[in-house]
Amino acid sequence: MEMKIVDGRQAAALTVAGSDSGGNAGIQADVRAFHTFGLHACTVLAALTAQNPSGVSAVHVPDADFVAAQLDAVLPAYAIGAAKTGMLATREVIEAVAAKLAAWRGAPVVVDPVMVATSGSKLLRDDAIDAMRARMLPVAALATPNLPEAEVLAGLAIRSRADMAEAARRIRAAAGCAVLVKGGHAADSTAEDLLVCDEGAFVYSSPVVANPASTHGTGCSLSAAIAASLALGRSLPDAVAEGKAYVYEAIRTSLPVGPAATVLGMPDVPDLLRHPAITRSRLPPS
After folding, report:
1. Nearest to 149 by CA among 176, 187, 111, 177
2. What DSSP element (H or E) covers 45?
3. Choosing from 15, 197, 220, 253, which is the catalytic residue?
4. Which residue out of 4, 84, 100, 182 is catalytically annotated?
């Protein structure tokens, strides 16, 4: 996709997240999404991982002051149209990032909580989860929890679409941000995500790609693609549709890159917003 010019400047977006040494997820996935949407990518490293598609073998978390210094260097210098956060790892880092972005308030922020693995295992200590809930989510225009994360944030077991909607509404009431509950990991033949925002409540559906080469990095890619779409001026409901189409195509075009590694593809679709595989329906008011 060609690079986008907005008000005479190269359009840009910011990711504050962890680095994936394999290039599949994290900041590397975010940069790939930003470039696909024609955006310059600004990056703030909040964690370093030794990682491949089989798992994470080591993590190094920079000092929170260094993370803050990266934000101080980037935010005043670039015309950032939207930002996203991913792996923030510790309470100290979460608090530093939340404080800087709250003071900035320059553009929409998409927060991927990266709190709980799909298996249900916690990826953050309890104090960091509390900081995510109390400090980071109130800075967000949109939060994108997966089902286990939404259960933790909402205090609700999710077993149905109605539960997804209730969880999203509870999180929205507590944090003040729009909420996209991602249901793809629970999908059989159709992947459904549910958005609650100022415009209403929407369900986004796509067919599950059969036997994909890779799904590693899809959560990072979705939040980055939504941020990229917002940076280009889309409404939130449209940005979510475009982001979901981007991830569908990335999974569909995934491929091997080595003897034990696969990677999401690089979508090359002229109009992701009107992708035929993605359906959007409005839920009736609750």
Report:
1. 111
2. strand 40-52
3. 220
4. 182
**Could you confirm whether 118 is annotated as catalytic?**
no
The DSSP secondary-structure symbol of 271 reads -
| Residue 204 pLDDT level (bands cut at 50, 70, 90) | very high
Active-site option among 18, 81, 183, 217: 217
Tally of CB atoms within 10 A around 94: 27
10, containing H or E segment: strand 9-10
Active site residue 218: yes
Q: Which tens digit of pLDDT belongs to each residue from 30-39?
A: 999 999 999 9
Would you place residue 47 in the very low, low, confident or very high pLDDT band (cuts 50, 70, 90)? very high
Of the pLDDT bands very low, low, confident and very high (cuts 50, 70, 90), residue 122 is low
pTM tops 0.90, yes or no: yes
Catalytic residue at 182? yes
The pLDDT assigned to 125 comes to 82
Is 219 among the catalytic positions?
yes
Q: Which helix (H) or strand (E) holds 162?
A: helix 161-175
Rounded distance, CA 86 to CA 136, Å? Answer: 11
Q: How far is residue 79 from each of residues 55, 69, 152, 225, measured CA to CA in Å?
A: 35, 18, 35, 18
Residue 147's CB is within 10 A of a number of other CB atoms, namely 21
Q: Residues 36, 43, 215, 253: which is the catalytic one?
A: 215
Higher pLDDT, 91 or 186: 91
Domains and CATH numbers, the chain: 5-282 (3.40.1190.20)
Q: Which of 23, 219, 244, 253 is catalytic?
A: 219
E strands, 183-250, are 190-197, 200-207
How many CB atoms neighbour CB 190 within 10 A?
Answer: 12
C-alpha distances (whole Å) from 37 to each of 106, 205, 251 are 20, 22, 17
